[in-house]
């Protein structure tokens, strides 16, 4: 008898995923004892959690096969000509891993080297393994941590296990996200066994899958195939799954918390049984141990609850509270649950980590969505996440990217329908980065009028599966059930039912746009753009995407990498065309017509900074433009977060990173290199920060921490381009209130200057002048290049993607800067077994300002740029005699055996 159930019904997920597996028998027709036996076969060994994740698959197109699953899933079928692909590998990812195409990131290879017809037919995945010894009490399951894109068919040892219902024959495994479990105990044979999975062609407008729209080109295969773990699991007659700890935190005092513990316990046998369910919680001063006895009928699943009302140990005094990084620490607890049945087989075990925190949201009197974490108003400063275009699992890269987000000072990542796997959740928990997941826009996910009954089932199963995955993670801030649209009443109910069934405690938000749904009401969000270039002062206006309310996806569009990075994905001609042919469509821009050209950006660059003279001139001006645009966006929302009349409650920069190398929408580029876009944002997001306001010329101190900072001094100095001081203002004895912004000065309009001028802001700890002497320690510095002529926007002509600029600021005075000279010295030291840090001290030894100095770390004097690197600051500006020390943190291995070399360059400083 075949047993199958979707794991969303209270399924059995436990164990450590991704564990390495021992080599065993060959999976081809070659006998195991021969010298060429394959080493990727799976040997099931019964561990305490009974779980093994399949590490490698064999993969082949059905176009080259003339047999079906009954033959393909027979043990010893000869698959030696098939491709070997990693776990969690879509078809395209598998082909790329096998070198079947030239680098899809470079130039137009993705468009020119791939035949879309290859993905109009199903593809097969295959795996052989050795079955465990037969036992009277044991059960073996095949578990899918996510669906098969777009649909799947499962065969084991010549028998079809799924795909037996519905006209398509593939309805048992449908959609990207639902989790499934199939008992295959009755199908196993002693010795060699085989699995075959048939993945159907994907269409994002036909099925609830994962897709990319204007973020990048679509993956040629539409991400068809296996994209999450598939595991073989050995359990006893009773198993435990989905352990969850649901905290209730005392507010506002935070001195007490209570926990409710839940899990699903299942009897897989044909007879009734009793079992002891036990839980142990560690991470507090002493372990908390609780248990209870339950009875289960044949094949019955129960949700077991341990409540603080009946288990006093679940009431915690002085709990260790989890905070976002800017607010505090990130302590985690561990929950381990076991079931012990009255058989000789033993017990099953499930573990999870969790944090104690409280997240809520509310609408302000103005109708804006505002979040609160542990009772404290939480101003969201985030970016939109892009998964890898081919959905490849890349844990080290993922860790690098989240470290960048933490380094930037971002506190939130929004994931619009690209829900990463467990690694991202775990990293966010450890790094204190909040997450705003949700469903994607514009594909079948929001084409509600086209939904079939199966779509409703898949949508509910998808939501429950994701909620079960996220419920224990303190980093989850909320869930968007819609992106650009609002769900219908039935869709909304489907989502709410699934989230509640998983005990999802974070806020449920109806849409990322200004929409509402019948039960959840108004979203409190806005999605009014911009998505393309606009001048810095745009963000200070109370219009469209300006700094008020919660802007769920906004940004200033083009973000041009530095030359090292451009050379990694563009030809020399393509790089040259960026500045010389701005009206030409570029392949590494978006496919949407409005985002396919650099004309808007290039016109603004030429009018504001002066027409580029060559490639180098274009790139140095592009970095200044990206820096000022991104800094202004985050500074404006930071300033007005605590404005009671019109608060700026949150902003998501569009986007954080790229699925594929692009010339737009990122804070770091696809090669993990950082440029002006990164450091403009990082400057704005410093935890204690001084900034200039483009609208009213106010100088503002912003404190994003939960402790007030007193005894601060701000000095604001305006300079003409010849170095003349135009004004010099100072404010002392400043108290920067916790989690708030404060205006401390107003910069006078420049007198006797026209065109371009510079402003330097210095924030010091103490009553010193902030000029580097012993009387005050510099806490923050910020430099602006400004114009006596303002940018003028034509708001009546605004579109969904940008607001036209009809008159431009004059920053051409920067071109008149004389060359500056900078002395530098550096030292490198170990910061761990695998990591290094290099500190470089820069001193302006000339008589003119050195603008936007950039330090880059190289693999030797003439070597490639080292990436990723986390610089303490960059693109810094020094006046004559000033000095600054910058620090770079990186991996020793990324030097590729070379000696680290620091190259220094600047707007008016030759490399």
Write the layout of secondary structure elements.
Blueprint: E1 3-6, E2 42-43, E3 51-53, E4 56-61, H1 69-72, E5 83-86, H2 91-97, H3 109-112, E6 123-130, E7 139-144, E8 148-149, E9 151-156, E10 159-160, E11 173-174, E12 180-183, E13 192-199, E14 225-226, E15 230-235, E16 238-249, E17 256-267, E18 273-282, E19 288-296, E20 301-306, E21 315-317, E22 333-341, E23 347-354, E24 359-363, E25 369-373, E26 376-378, E27 380-384, H4 395-408, E28 412-416, H5 422-431, E29 434-438, H6 453-470, E30 479-480, H7 489-501, E31 508-509, E32 516-517, E33 521-522, E34 550-554, H8 563-569, H9 572-580, H10 599-609, H11 615-639, E35 650-653, H12 676-684, E36 688-692, E37 698-703, E38 709-720, E39 725-736, E40 740-746, E41 756-765, E42 777-787, E43 792-793, E44 805-807, E45 822-830, E46 835-844, E47 850-859, E48 870-871, E49 876-878, E50 883-891, E51 900-905
Parallel strand pairs: 2-6, 27-28, 27-35, 28-29, 30-31, 34-35
Antiparallel strand pairs: 1-12, 3-15, 4-5, 4-6, 6-13, 7-12, 7-15, 8-14, 9-10, 9-11, 9-13, 16-17, 17-20, 17-21, 18-19, 18-22, 22-23, 24-25, 25-26, 32-33, 36-37, 37-40, 38-39, 38-41, 41-42, 43-44, 45-46, 46-50, 47-49, 47-51, 48-50
Helix pairs in contact: 4-5, 6-7, 11-12
Signal peptide: 1-25
Domain Beta-mannosidase-like galactose-binding: 79-200
Domain Exo-beta-D-glucosaminidase Ig-fold: 800-909
């Amino acid at each position: 008898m075949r047993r199958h159930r979707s794991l969303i019904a209270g399924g059995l997920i436990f164990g450590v995923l991704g564990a390495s597996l021992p080599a065993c028998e060959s999976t081809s027709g070659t006998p195991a004892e021969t010298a060429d036996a394959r080493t990727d076969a799976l040997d099931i060994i019964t561990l305490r959690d009974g779980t093994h994740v399949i590490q490698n698959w064999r993969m082949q197109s059905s176009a080259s096969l003339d047999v079906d699953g009954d033959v393909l899933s027979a043990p010893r079928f000869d698959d030696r000509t098939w491709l070997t692909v990693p776990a969690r590998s879509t078809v395209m990812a598998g082909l790329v891993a096998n070198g079947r195409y030239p680098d899809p990131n470079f130039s137009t290879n993705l468009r020119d080297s791939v035949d879309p017809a290859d993905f109009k037919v199903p593809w097969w995945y295959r795996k052989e393994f050795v079955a465990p010894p037969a036992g009277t009490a044991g059960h073996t399951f095949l578990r899918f941590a996510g669906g098969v894109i777009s649909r799947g068919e499962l065969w084991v040892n010549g028998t079809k296990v799924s795909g037996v219902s519905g006209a398509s024959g593939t309805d048992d495994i449908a959609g990207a996200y639902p989790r499934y479990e199939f008992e295959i105990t009755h199908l196993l044979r002693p010795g060699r066994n085989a699995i075959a999975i048939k993945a159907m062609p994907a269409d994002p407008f036909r099925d609830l899958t994962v897709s990319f729209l204007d973020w990048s080109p679509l993956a040629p295969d539409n991400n068809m195939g296996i994209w999450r773990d598939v595991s073989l699991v050995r359990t006893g007659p009773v198993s435990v799954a989905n352990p969850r700890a649901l905290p209730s935190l005392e507010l506002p005092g935070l001195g007490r918390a209570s926990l409710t513990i839940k899990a699903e316990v299942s009897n897989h046998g044909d007879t009734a049984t009793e079992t002891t369910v036990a839980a142990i919680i560690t991470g507090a001063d002493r372990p908390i141990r609780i248990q209870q006895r339950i009875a289960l009928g044949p094949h019955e699943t129960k949700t077991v609850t341990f409540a603080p009302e009946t288990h006093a140990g679940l009431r915690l005094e002085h709990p260790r509270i989890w905070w976002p990084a800017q607010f505090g620490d990130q302590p985690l607890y561990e929950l381990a649950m076991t079931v012990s049945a009255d058989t000789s087989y033993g017990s099953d075990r499930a573990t999870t980590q969790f944090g104690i925190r409280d997240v809520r949201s509310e609408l302000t009197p103005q109708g804006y969505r505002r979040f609160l974490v542990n009772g404290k108003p939480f101003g969201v400063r985030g970016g939109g996440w892009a998964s890898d275009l081919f959905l490849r699992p890349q844990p080290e890269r993922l860790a690098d990217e989240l470290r960048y987000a933490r380094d930037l000072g971002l506190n939130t990542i929004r994931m619009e329908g690209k829900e990463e796997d467990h690694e991202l959740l775990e990293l966010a928990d450890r790094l204190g980065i909040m997450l705003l997941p949700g469903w994607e826009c514009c594909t079948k996910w929001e084409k509600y009028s086209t939904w079939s009954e199966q779509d409703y089932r898949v949508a509910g199963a998808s939501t429950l599966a994701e909620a079960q995955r996220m419920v224990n993670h303190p980093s989850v801030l909320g869930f968007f059930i819609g992106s650009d649209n609002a769900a219908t009443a039935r869709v909304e109910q489907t989502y709410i039912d699934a989230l509640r069934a998983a005990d999802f405690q974070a806020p449920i938000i109806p849409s990322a746009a200004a929409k509402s749904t019948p039960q959840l009401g108004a979203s409190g969000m806005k999605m009014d753009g911009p998505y393309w270039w606009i001048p810095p002062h745009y963000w200070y206006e109370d219009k469209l995407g300006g700094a008020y309310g919660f802007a769920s996806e906004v940004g200033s569009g083009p973000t041009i990498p530095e030359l090292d990075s451009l050379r990694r994905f563009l030809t020399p001609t393509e790089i040259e065309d960026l500045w010389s042919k701005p009206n030409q469509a570029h392949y590494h821009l978006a496919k949407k017509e409005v985002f396919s050209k650099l004309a808007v950006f290039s016109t603004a660059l030429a009018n504001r900074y002066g027409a580029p003279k060559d490639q180098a001139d274009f790139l140095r001006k592009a970095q200044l433009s990206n820096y000022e645009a991104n800094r202004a966006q985050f500074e404006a929302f930071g300033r007005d977060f605590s404005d009671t009349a019109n608060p700026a409650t949150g902003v998501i920069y569009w986007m954080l990173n790229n699925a594929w190398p692009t010339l737009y929408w990122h804070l770091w580029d696809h090669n993990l290199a950082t440029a002006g876009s990164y450091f403009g944002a990082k400057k704005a997001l410093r935890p204690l920060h001084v900034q200039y306001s483009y609208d009213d010329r106010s100088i503002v101190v912003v404190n994003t921490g939960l402790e007030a900072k007193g005894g601060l001094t701000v000095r604001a100095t305006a300079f003409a381009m010849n170095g003349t001081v135009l004004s010099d203002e100072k404010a002392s004895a400043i108290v920067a209130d916790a989690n708030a912004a404060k205006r401390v000065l107003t910069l006078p309009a420049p007198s006797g200057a026209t065109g371009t001028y510079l402003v330097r802001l210095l924030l010091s700890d103490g009553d010193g002048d902030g000029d580097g002497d012993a009387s005050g320690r510099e806490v923050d510095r910020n430099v602006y290049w400004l114009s006596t002529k303002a940018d003028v926007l034509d708001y009546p002509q605004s579109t969904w993607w940008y607001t036209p600029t009809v008159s431009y600021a004059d920053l051409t005075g920067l071109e008149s800067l004389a060359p500056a000279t900078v002395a530098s010295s550096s030292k490198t030291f170990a910061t761990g077994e695998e990591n290094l840090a290099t500190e470089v001290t820069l001193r302006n030894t000339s008589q003119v300002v050195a603008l936007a100095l950039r330090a880059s770390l190289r693999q030797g004097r003439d070597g490639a740029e080292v990436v990723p690197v986390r610089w303490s600051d960059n693109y810094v500006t020094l006046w004559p005699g000033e000095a600054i020390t910058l620090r770079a943190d990186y991996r020793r291995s990324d030097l590729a055996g070379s000696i680290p070399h620091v190259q220094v360059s600047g707007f008016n400083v030759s490399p």
